């Protein structure tokens, strides 16, 4: 009897210990994941900030007016300090990374000194411009190397916890991709002797406001379904699911969707007027049969069919056999950037498989565009003389204060980089300078 | 009689074929397809365009198969110098002029791209001097660059795809785009961090991050969804929160004004 009680107690004890052990294990795991996440965050932010830093320095090179330069230097200074913080949060304790940190703080010092100086009285000297150019190319190298480390880390699911362990066990030969990558970054810096993303300009109105261009009668569910069948190419109404939005939505919307094997479709229709706001069709896409150029015509036809007239193609690019087109509204030859529409065309058969017109319906009105007081030539004078201007347009954009302004838009080249520069057509202010990229080395193809 | 005629015809055809054979190997073949090439295009036509422009000295960038800004300006300069209409589009007239004015050795260019060599300059003269040392490359594609949305790297896209896959892999496509759009809406919002990684790794923001599911390998669909969201699609209706009503543990989330339900997720702000 006594023996059985003892066995029972012991069994209970073992079960209890096992349970306790399991809980401890779970807890340890979740703490490990949390620590790992913090490291990952710092690492990914570091690469992002370096990328941004490189772009911002590049943008500075194309700027001309001190009103624009000073804030830009402040921005760079802020970015260097963010990047430095990110470096500080990484478990690199035993890894020599001080040269890179020094490099960052050098950029910071330089930009801070220039930012607080009155650039009207003492503009950038030639020496300073060449320093900036050097910093630009050096930060580009660091950025590329960090991006490469990041790619490998993402590709192979590398853990920072492993880096920490590898660094702690000094006796073992260090064989860790992240460590190697950072060592390379550090090496390349030794060789030198010394928030926002560049947001796409289109549809930039960051201020939320009422939709300005939703007109027409409110449509009923049956009409919405009919429209959905037409736009999504569905023959049988039963296959469509329809839903209405709740109180949190800025405007009342019908959402329609269907699912058919590996093909599916979705669209948002404004109740008022039945305008399509979002269309997304997903299906496997075969080899290209039509070119990006022909796809653009399909996109334009599609827009005209859906009452989006006088839109002009502004940008196009090809991703995985899909053509993506950005259109902006064209009012008497002036490009209105906030009224933007994007269209996706499948390049196998030319079907339009996506549309987003939220920005258009949110911002579009027929504007009262004034005559510019500056001539094109006068505006050109305001652009940095190192930029070789290739194309010019008139454009309405939202400036930093979220006001719509009429500008001259110049596309120009400086040292193999392309810049988009906006000069206010009324007072000559340099409203915006953007460095354009849009292509990147395919990391995945290089390994 | 009929038979003889047929044999005769056949022989003529064979002879003419033989006659054609050596001709097509010695002459530079016009490999341009009939398409009009424009900014943003990707592929073999772009490689040929870049090589020919480089041969003529208009293009100094990398021959990477993506029609970016560098190629665009080179093409416009070419059109200007040759007295054509300057539109930055490689249409038939432009392509004919290019073929006339330059040589293009497709095999040579592609072989070098495949070996991962950078061209210092593709043009006349000693070919050995035109190549620089590079590492080997196992991939079969000749295109060595990709289009990325302005301001984003492939890695940012990858990271977001990880998050979307971890959070919404069972959801319909629009539901995945919506989750990606929420991440971007948060980056825009003043009450959340200002970077994609900041938003994703914000403590207690996404369950997939907290339980490690973010490190599952995402599929192509998740990546497409992220690209669509970055390019402006937002089926969530500008939401900054979403939750799964079956598993949500916080009562607070129910107090947010709801926008819509896509798949299992309710989107709100």
UniProtKB/TrEMBL annotation, chain A:
Sequence ranges assigned to domain Sporulation protein YpeB N-terminal in this UniProt record: 27-162
Residue ranges of every copy of the PepSY domain listed in the record: 374-434
Domain of life from the UniProt record: Bacteria
Segments forming domain Sporulation protein YpeB PepSY1 and PepSY2: 180-370
Matching InterPro entries: PepSY, YpeB_N, YpeB_PepSY1-2
Listed GO biological process terms: spore germination
Protein name listed in UniProt: Germination protein YpeB
Lineage: Bacteria, Bacillati, Bacillota, Bacilli, Bacillales
Gene assigned in the entry: ypeB
Automatic annotation (TrEMBL), chain B:
Residue ranges, compositional bias (Low complexity): 127-142
Domain of life, per lineage: Bacteria
InterPro entries: Cell_wall_hydrolase_SleB (IPR011105), Peptidoglycan-bd-like (IPR002477), PGBD-like_sf (IPR036365), PGBDSf (IPR036366), SleB_dom1 (IPR042047), Spore_cortex_SleB (IPR014224)
UniProt domain Cell wall hydrolase SleB: residue ranges: 170-268
Gene3D superfamilies registered for this protein in UniProt: 6.20.240.60, Cell wall hydrolase SleB, domain 1, PGBD-like superfamily/PGBD
GO molecular function: hydrolase activity
Stretches the record annotates as Disordered: 119-147
Domain Peptidoglycan binding-like stretches: 43-98
Signal peptide: 1-21
UniProt keyword terms in alphabetical order: Cell wall biogenesis/degradation, Germination, Hydrolase, Signal, Sporulation
Record-linked SUPFAM superfamilies: PGBD-like
One of the protein's GO biological processes: spore germination
Membership in a protein family: Belongs to the SleB family.
The protein's name in its UniProt record: Spore cortex-lytic enzyme
Organism: Oceanobacillus profundus
